[in-house]
Amino acid sequence: MLDERKVAVETDFLVERIDGRTLVSYDEREIGFDLLVTVPLNMGAEFVARSGLGNELNLVPVDKHTLLSTAYPNIFALGDASDIPASKAGSVALFSAEVFTENFVRYVRGEPMTACFDGRVVGRQPDDGRAHHRGLQEPLALGHRVGGQHSRDGRAPGAAAG
Ligand SMILES: Cc1cc2nc3c(=O)[nH]c(=O)nc-3n(C[C@H](O)[C@H](O)[C@H](O)COP(=O)(O)OP(=O)(O)OC[C@H]3O[C@@H](n4cnc5c(N)ncnc54)[C@H](O)[C@@H]3O)c2cc1C
Asked: Which residue of 5, 13, 27, 144 has the fewest CB atoms within a 10 Å radius of its CB?
């Protein structure tokens, strides 16, 4: 279909500069254009960068189920600030807030975090109970996360079982 419509795809083309009507990539490839429509890299907020909590995209790395920071045991991040692999959308912020509030209360009580964000970006239909679109780019496997400061059930190291 792309051939039919005379669409050429140039992959891994990282724009370094624009010379007149030519795009130039970091590896010195050039593509001419008549009309340029370009989308800048979608990054997190500058204040996240200044805080030192962000990754290279100014997003706070969190456990994608519990939204607890993977670096700090007393910080949660949700919405656009987090690095969960879901859309940066108001609906994601809304649904992840539901998970956060439930988990936060359990967390401060020293109980396991049982609420689990599933990447939902739209509401569930009453007829089938399933999300119509999952926002996460991969299915969320249940089970215990390894290598972090908290297990998947959210129990902090040394915390009493809930
Ligand atoms: C043009 C546009 C259209 C969009 N359309 C849609 C849509 O149709 N549907 C959809 O689902 N999503 C849409 N979105 C995305 C949606 O707006 C965001 O994903 C959502 O607002 C994220 O919510 P948040 O609470 O994480 O962050 P935000 O809504 O950005 O809230 C962050 C808050 O932090 C405040 N803040 C910033 N710095 C500081 C500081 N230093 N101290 C204290 N407070 C601070 C800000 O003022 C802001 O109020 C759109 C976004 C844009 C820009």
From this structure: 5
